[in-house]
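Review form for a predicted model. The reviewer records the input and the model, then writes brief findings.
Reviewer: anonymous (R2)
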Amino acid sequence: MTTKRLLVFVAIITVTIISIPAYGSAPDSSAVPIQQIKNITVVGKPSSKSLTSAVPQQTLTADQISRLGITDMGDAVRRFSGANVKDYGGIGGLKTVSVRNMGAAHTAVSYDGVSVGNTQAGQIDIGRFPLDNVAMMSLVVGQSDNLLQSARLFASGSVLNITTMRPYFKNGRKHHLVTKLATGSFGLANASVRVWQKLSESTSFSTDASYLRADGNYPFKLHNGSIITNEHRNNSAIESHRIELGLYHDFGSNATLDLKGLYYYSRRGLPGAVIYYNPRSTEKLWDQDAFLQANFHKTFSEKWRMQAQAKYSHSWNRHKGKGIEFTNGFFKETMRQDEYYVSATGLYAPTGNIQISLAQDIIANTLSTSFPECPYPRRISYITALNAKYEPAEFLLANAGGVLYITDEHVKYGKTPDNFRQLAPAASIRISPLPGQNLYTRFLYKGTFRLPSFNDMYYYRIGNTGLKPEKAREFNAGITYSPNYVTHWLESVIITADWYYNRVTDKIVAIPTTFAWKMQNYGKVHATGVDVNIQAVFKPLQWAELTLQGAYTWQKAIDVTSKNKKNYRHQLPYTPRNNGNVSITIKTPWITAGYSIVCVGKRYYLAQNLPENEIGAYQDHSLSIQHDFKLKPGLILNLKGDILNLTNKQYDVIKYYPMPGRNWRIAATLTF
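Model under review:
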């Protein structure tokens, strides 16, 4: 961290500490008097979108994330069935998510309702999003039942929604402060602060700032034939800081405006693959990401609603390395991408059971690199989504719509590629065959595609400007059930099961040519699978609540590109046939504890399913324990301890990238 950045972070912490006395003070006497009423208890079964949605939808709340000891976004997402997270190891390792083997570029990420873009790589590193301020996250496959969203989200095969906490104030207070200090194995040090300020009855402001550093030099065993040596993961250090500002205003006439700005900086080592007797790497990566976004909602009447969004995002990264594997023994590249994004969605409900929405997005992307012959591409995308929903009664819900995607591509130097124009339809239906019972069946079809990324088209020497979009078709049939009658000790049960079948054509892959690798449209993939989820809440005693959650995925994802290839109908690399997780949490007045197991079956790291290409199965056990200490009214101290990879299992998610063994984290969170 530079001196300037260090001073900025120290200033943030100093202002926060100076403000602490004010947060412990009594409420403003000039405020409207508050009358206290006796506590009441509302008993009922909570509704769940995973039960009533016409498409597969899974959620994790902040409370569930905390109880399970989930420490990062990648660990959270892999609790969703059908989600495959590629994790390159370490605290700062790259993490991308692919849903149902369609590829990471087919999964959109929404941050507080506004999509996150990365046209350069075509996929989002979810490891950059912290969990401290996450209120809820969900994974939706196919066409969402929510028609008031951007066209960009409608155009995606699946959407990972991340919703952060909005300011709220209790007991007439105008301030809210949360500070957290955490430490753990491998030199981990993490500090964060969250400040909420009520500016008026209709306006509030939030600040979230965090700093993280770690050595990351965890031990592992290196296997070379019959020889086993003890090594340490080298070049894994990371240092990062982020600050996020939010302004929330309620206009009082059924209109709200949310403004958000974020800046993220990181400097990390890239440990590289551990092959033979060389566990070392010299590569470094610097990242800067920043965005400003606005999200406006307005309800004109029971029939008319609208949403408008605008966003500017900037990303910069520098990659350096030394070694004989690089030309002239040295490698350095710098890339910058900018995105300008506007979106508007209108929703019309002519009757109480019909909704129609029209969404229009315009996106402008630019890229500049330090590579020779950089073409300086610019892409303007126009996305239009028209959708309709019909819900005449509880027993039926039907959605239908389509997305039109048009691009206008330009380059400063070189050949200008062809523009794209693609139409993709979608339809889903949910039926309740037994009225009055929480039993639903659902069916989904969606056509989708993903555009070639800038790296696919323009990366030095391997890019191909002649690429076509990668097309996919999704099919899903599922059933959900929650019994109406439960015992006094079993509060609720929700069970969902979905069968799916995906076809991907014109898959974009790197193919070796005469002189170098080249990106080509060459690949067909068929993926068949089953996702099963269960959630049960028990109340064995008046003072104890027990929650059981489980998810299981069976998937067969095969390459059907060519019958003449040796890998024809072989399972795709890094795709296990079986994987799942189970967790149990208990909440009492004295302690809250969670235990979870993530199980991943064997898979292959190359296209051919040969024994020498196999990666072994593994189980990852985690334990989390925490307790809240009420120091005084309005002042709470939470102490939490996590033990990760409890059995000290050594495993790889990506071949030759060993994951950490047993490690621990402890955190103290003070809430004013």
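Findings: Confidence is low (pLDDT under 50) at residues 1-47.
Further findings: The first strand starts at residue 57 and ends at 61.
Recommendation: see findings above.
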